[in-house]
Amino acid sequence: MSQKNDSVNPFDPTGMFKNMRDSGIDAWSKIMIQLVNTDAYAQATGAMLDTWLATSTPFRKAIESTMTQVLTNLNMPTRNDVTSLAERLTNIEMRLDDMEAKVDDTLRAARKPAAAPKAKETKDAV
Amino acid sequence: MTATETLTPLLADLYAELERITENTRTFSRLLTTDAKIAQTPKEVVWTLNKAKLYRYVPVVPPAQRHRIPLLMVFAIMNRPYVLDLRPGHSFVEYMLKKGFDLYLLDWGIPGPEDRNMKFDDYALEYLPRVIRKLKTVSGSDEFSMLGWCLGALISTIYASARPDDGLKNLILLTAPLDFSDKQAGGFIRWTSEKAFNADRIVDTMGNVPGEMIDYGAKALKPVENYVSNYVNLWDNIENPKVVDSWHAMNTWVRETIPMAGGAYRQLINDFYKENRLMNDTLVARGEPIHLANLRASLLNIIAESDHITPPCQSENAMVKVGSTDKELFKIRGGHIGMMAGSGAEKNTWPHIEHWLTKRSD
What is the ipTM of this complex? Predict the structure, then answer.
């Protein structure tokens, strides 16, 4: 995304510092890429993620059921209500799309015979 | 010369330097916290379904100079597709429009909780055929070309293998993750092939997989480059408007992370990464067996040599399996995104795609 300035003036302390910084970052980057590509890192990541999911699930479920109860008591739609409504809307959209396709096909078929004499007229005129 | 006279220019220089640093800091902060204007090429929506939208770009050349066969662009499902139209003056869309292509872009949209069960089957065999039906109606052409990038390339490949007689003439795949037989090739496959990595549990817990989690996964493959060097390089070039504009546009696109439908994520990890079903001819989508040998469209498979997200081996082995007789494998320098959106794309990748497609689009 950006450009590096490779020309370094040896008498410029800032330039030398930049050069050292870039070398350090490059070395660090190589080490980190090697690290994330090891099986040990993969195992550790998988285990951490699994532990987090296992421990957070009960809390998540508790919050969900509490919210559902609260919203139901307040006569408000729950997340599930909204989700199922959205699913129904998608199904309606699919049916509309099917109908639109049929209308397109019908229009295309209707245009074909009408287009034929028109082409003949143009030819005759020429 | 008095001491005051000597000190004054020094103080003035110091003040000017402090002012410059302050201004650069302001610019740096602005770049990190604001959005650049991206996706500026004029387009119109020609079809929508659920969250998906099909756009047609407004042509810029007269009909007589346009290619007969339209091009549909299909991007991945976990990022916005606007990287194909990044900014005026540096946009693949703009480039192809000027070359006379009738361009269509499929935006999958942002999945909601109601889309948590959507799979690649749905994207490839429910949505894509509908998109193509509409594209044919709008363009008036029964034939079309398709360009798929990343997971969009996977979806395009499934479609092309399942519907070989649907009018697909040319297929361009960019960094397509198709073959997962090499379990040592890259970080993603190492992480996800682990028994401890349980995609079912992730999806059962979260529904859709959060965009932040996917973004972290992609950035963690090169952590220092993404979290440190990216910003250090920006600071070094903060006074170069060309670099700043380019960085800002790319960062705007990168920052917009979107969730991935849970069903698709589960299938990506289990069916593709772990079991390699597409290459093993064991993939079944909506009850249909999918065989790469049925893919007959002319094929241009473009691979980025430094791609750490889709390592080259995940794309190139598919060339042997596809049924296309007209096929080309094109390797290009660059990374997963840089090959199409980087500064060199305009000189290398885009002209190659344009030349290949022009020969096959009239």
Answer: 0.80
